UniProtKB/TrEMBL annotation:
Protein name from the UniProt record: Unannotated protein
UniProt xrefs under NCBIfam families: carotene-cycl
Organism classification: unclassified sequences, metagenomes, ecological metagenomes
The species this protein was found in: freshwater metagenome
Pfam families referenced in this protein's UniProt entry, alphabetically: Lycopene_cycl
GO MF annotations, alphabetized: intramolecular oxidoreductase activity; oxidoreductase activity, acting on paired donors, with incorporation or reduction of molecular oxygen
Family: Belongs to the lycopene cyclase family.
Gene Ontology process terms (BP): carotenoid biosynthetic process
InterPro entries: FAD/NAD-bd_sf, Lycopene_cyclase_b/e
Length: 408
């Protein structure tokens, strides 16, 4: 007796921003799409932000800008010095973004995917923990950095970014109407280690988000340490007037998933997290149309599942972006060798570069030769003691990375 198994062109695991964005693009191209997630309609709880102009390459950039909860015309950064960056930044309203990335043609199913295997040349079998099954021409894992469905050659990471943040009353917590991307000043009474910075903004409705962040450490910094440093920075305890708490643990840099599996990664699951900033949402929004177009073309050509996966991986991580990733990983390793005082000076020099130079470094899809050129400019600008620390463990690696013509 045969059992009916529902079939789709595309099955997406994970209903976060990356999964929703990719499903939206596939649906626009008239593919049948289903998202499988333990809580597919749950409202996102994390805070998502981006530089406003990082959305400009999308045809619907103006609509996405309409999903911001608030934007700021200037961004504040503090190293040893204070910098006012005239580049608008926005924080998404999760409800609006989630609604915008919804499409009537996308189906949702509550469940956990436990296994994906090839059925035949044309379909993959997707097995759920409840013993239910779907079949799909291609499967994308958008389930975040903890996904176990992608093949990985090793589990190496460049370290962990950790953050402890709260939504609280704005009065006394932040400067009115301000957005602080990084404040590396050491909190009063705190030790200089670990190196942490304040990320904070005034939402303009009487509330603010304040977050203490460790950029990268070999071991994740505990919530207790980050909370204490945040209280020292604010000069008050957080138990009062705290409305919502956010905990962040992000594996930074390191190995990407193998490109040889049938399941294709996307978003944070594929390593889209920027190895320095920890951001991935804007990168996923920019990449979703590119990936959906490439894979949709393969579906129209009626390619076998192996070829569809190959096309998918090549669209997720084009060779030129893999070269950029090498440079970003080198930069992450170099930053991890700096003391708090060195990091403060480093970012003073970084944000003193022309905006067109530092802004490109903060994207995973900037051409590698541009990244290499800007890394070279920064390296020659910073003080000698920082130069020595940046190259101490791998001077030949830096030379190879920055050789003219290597990343044309």
């Amino acid at each position: 007796m045969s059992t009916f198994v529902e079939k789709f062109d595309v099955l997406i695991i994970g209903a976060g921003p990356a999964g929703r964005a990719l499903a939206f693009e596939f649906a626009l191209l008239e593919n049948s799409v289903i998202i499988v997630d333990p809580n597919p309609l749950e409202q996102w709880k994390s805070t998502y932000g981006t530089w406003v102009d990082d959305l400009d390459n999308r045809d619907d950039a103006s609509e996405l800008r309409g999903c911001f909860q608030r934007t700021w015309p200037q961004v504040r950064v503090v190293g040893k010095l204070e910098h006012q960056l005239s580049r608008p930044y926005g924080i998404f309203d999760n409800r609006l973004l989630q609604k915008y990335l919804s499409h009537d043609a996308v189906s949702f199913y509550r469940g956990d995917v436990v296994r994906v295997q090839q059925s035949d040349d044309n379909f993959l079998q997707v097995h759920l923990s409840t013993n239910e099954q779907f079949e799909a021409r291609t499967v994308f894992d958008c389930g975040g950095t903890q996904s176990s469905l992608l093949l990985r050659n090793n589990q190496y990471t460049g370290g962990f970014q950790s953050a402890y943040g709260v939504h609280t009353e704005a009065a006394g917590a932040v400067q009115a109407d301000s957005f602080t991307l990084m404040d590396w000043s050491t909190p009063p009474g705190a030790s200089a280690s670990p190196a942490t910075f304040l990320y904070a903004f005034d939402l303009g409705n009487g509330t603010a988000m304040v977050e203490e962040t460790s950029l990268v450490e070999r071991e994740a910094v505990s919530d207790a340490v980050l909370r204490q440093r945040l209280e020292q920075r604010l000069g008050r305890e957080l138990s009062q007037a705290t409305q919502q708490v956010e905990h962040v643990r992000i594996a930074m840099g390191g190995s990407l998933p193998s490109r040889f599996g049938h399941v294709v990664g996307f978003g944070a699951a594929a390593g889209f997290i920027h190895p320095v900033t920890g951001y991935s949402v804007a990168a996923s929004l920019r990449a979703a149309p590119r990936v959906a177009r490439a894979v949709s073309d393969a579906l129209v050509r009626d390619e076998v599942v192996e070829e569809i996966a190959r096309v998918g991986w090549n669209a997720v991580w084009p060779l030129s972006f893999l070269r950029t990733r090498v440079l970003h990983d080198f930069g992450l390793a170099a930053l991890s060798r700096l003391t708090t005082a060195d990091i403060q000076v480093f970012f003073d020099y970084f944000f003193s570069l022309p905006q067109s130079h530092w802004s490109g470094y903060l994207r995973i899809d900037t051409k590698a030769r541009v990244i290499a050129q800007n890394m070279t400019r920064l390296f020659f600008n910073v003080p000698l003691r920082i130069k020595i620390k940046l190259v101490r463990k791998s001077p030949l690696g830096l030379i190879r990375c920055l050789l003219p013509g290597r990343f044309l």
